[in-house]
Amino acid sequence: MVKKLSLKQIDNNQVTYYDLNNEINIPVDGQIPLNKDKEALEAFLRENVVPNMMTFPSLKERFNYLITHDYLEREFIEKYDFSFIEKLYHFLDNAHFEFKTFMAAYKFYAQYALKTNDNTLYLESFIDRVAANALFFANGDENLALSLADEIIHQRYQPATPSFLNAGRKRRGELVSCFLIQITDDMNSIGRGINSALQLSRIGGGVGITLSNLRGAGAPIKNIQGAASGVVPVMKLLEDSFSYSNQLGQRQGAGVVYLNVFHPDIVSFLSAKKENADEKIRVKTLSLGVLVPDKFYELVRNNQDMYLFDPWGVERVYGVPFSYVDITKEYDNLVADTRIPKKKISARELETEISKLQQESGYPYIINIDTVNRANPIDGKIIMSNLCSEILQVQKPSTLNNTQTYDKLGTDISCNLGSTNIVNLMASPDFGESVETMVRALTFVTDHSDIDVVPSIQHGNRLAHTIGLGAMGLHAFLAKNKLYYGSKESLDFTNVYFMLLNYWTLKASNKIARERQETFAGFEKSKYYDGSYFDKYLQNDFAPKTSEVKEIFKEIFIPTKADWDELKKEVHQYGLYHQNRLAVAPNGSISYINDTTASLHPIINRIEERQERKIGKIYYPAPYLSNETIPYYQSAYDTDMRKIIDIYAEAQQHVDQGMSLTLFLRSTIPEGLYEWKDGHTDKMTTRDLSILRNYAYHKGIKSIYYIRTFTDDQTEVGANECESCVI
């Protein structure tokens, strides 16, 4: 073993890579000096990585050292002959992987590379981390390990941050990204929910919690002289729990609470996030989401009053928690039923309050819950989402007794995520085989997730085997191929790409079910089993329509109606292993390592300025940026948000879960961007947000994540990133 100079010593000396990287932002003769980023990358590897990398005489001695010193688990390594591991490394070395940008290399070594306990030396390169992922997720299967190594080293597949970071490590957090739990209307459930939030935050994931079932402030409490305090005090307790349970200060605990828009506490719920809220009720770090049934859009459109229904009364009459009642279907019955306490407010005034808060903070997220359930092929009801609004799965409530143990164990959710890199997957020698490899890697995560501290999550995961494969790099692909974001060609491409993801994940899940002779629980009650899920693919043609997109897919298999019909028969006969398969997460952080654009959104800037803790600003040029691609790289803040909504709608029709759709607006809106602004103020108003939310609803969008606003003083509102859930 050869010791090198410590990372801390290097950081305190004069280095050139920061200055070189910063020079990208200084035009030379009217041109962006992209060569400076290449120079910064080379300097970083030369000045930081090479001098600080622990080296070993042989691969065998490296693994022996890492196992002996508790850096890597022994068990997954010993599932392979070491000669195979050497073969795997030979394959990876021959791939000749190189980072393309300074940001990519910096992000990897700063946040993902294994380091010594004293944080002074690197213990792995990108190839080493890829090898650990391939060996770990293949679980002893040599062919799968080679296939996984191929997908990850060529950056066609990117495991979610917790999976990529923790795979194979001896001392690690969980491999899953985030969690969803529900609280029902009793103190035992509230107490258990707070305990669950503490435990899950300690593990490391973001936590989504629905409070819709809790009785509103002022509602009566059985056998007690007094009234309920409502949801806001529970929000405060949860916020304190996340702040306390923060992995020994290594990260901020992260959580989101959801509330149905027809809950009697909806106004105070929203008010708790306002900047001028009283400190007794204000929540600073907790995220907010609102569950919006169709009926709300109808009442707003007709400028009618709306009734808010107290959950304890609804549950008393309907016999199920409030979340499980179809508000749109039952609205008139709920209004007429005198046994259910209710109060009346103006629907449009509440709509305006939602928009005001989104302007001020970026919150709340919006879940169009009826849209979600109409598209749901699984028996049961989806009642909430997660910290990034893309996970949408059915749940069942638990019943707890006075010892806070379960009389009836329900189902809650853990999220097992990964992402395709669109540019690179489109260059795959076999699109379908690549997707199957990704599904098998994600299947390992769901099979080996065992969150015993929250039994309802453990139970739900064991029954459902859910995964969430998504995508990143859409804008990069479009610009590289000289297609404008939001054009008919870009919509055509998005439709075909996600149709293929759906088809091949169904094929892979069906194949795994056949191999194991096992399906997810309740498969026989699903629309997959009865075949109705496949109707749209048998009745419509999702093949490329435009000449440009036909050319792009000319070497890639496009399933015909006959192929879909054959798949329908195979699914009916052998089943699906996974209850859910697809979800598009924000994947902001790790898109840099992939040298691509985040998720399906447009870029923010052609040269993105990112503030990194301790070191200051780093600049990241858009992928494939050149004089030829510059016109195709328009900022999200200068883009009509209806184009983003249209893109997401094309993808959403093929995605069984949700997508983290962010809207980007300027506080002063560019002239001509929205026709309804003509003759009115150019300042962003609550009306603008209302119009866009309604447009998204009518396009079939299931969820809206952040509203990000670029203000006139060059700051961003609602620009927070959920680090626990980003891929």
Automatic annotation (TrEMBL):
Entries under InterPro entries matching the protein: NrdE_NrdA_C, RNR_1b_NrdE, RNR_lg_C, RNR_lsu_N, RNR_N, RNR_R1-su_N, Rrm1
Keywords associated with the record: Allosteric enzyme, ATP-binding, Deoxyribonucleotide synthesis, Disulfide bond, Nucleotide-binding, Oxidoreductase
UniProt domain Ribonucleotide reductase large subunit: residue ranges: 564-586
Reaction equation(s) it catalyzes: a 2'-deoxyribonucleoside 5'-diphosphate + [thioredoxin]-disulfide + H2O = a ribonucleoside 5'-diphosphate + [thioredoxin]-dithiol
Pfam families: Ribonuc_red_lgC (PF02867), Ribonuc_red_lgN (PF00317), RNR_N (PF08343)
Molecular function as annotated in GO: ATP binding; ribonucleoside-diphosphate reductase activity, thioredoxin disulfide as acceptor
SUPFAM superfamilies with a match to the protein in the record: PFL-like glycyl radical enzymes (SSF51998), R1 subunit of ribonucleotide reductase, N-terminal domain (SSF48168)
GO BP field: deoxyribonucleotide biosynthetic process
Enzyme Commission designation: 1.17.4.1
GO cellular component: ribonucleoside-diphosphate reductase complex
CDD domains: RNR_I (cd01679)
Family indicated by similarity: Belongs to the ribonucleoside diphosphate reductase large chain family.
The protein's role, per its UniProt record: Provides the precursors necessary for DNA synthesis. Catalyzes the biosynthesis of deoxyribonucleotides from the corresponding ribonucleotides.
The protein's name in its UniProt record: Ribonucleoside-diphosphate reductase
Source species of the chain: Liquorilactobacillus sucicola DSM 21376 = JCM 15457
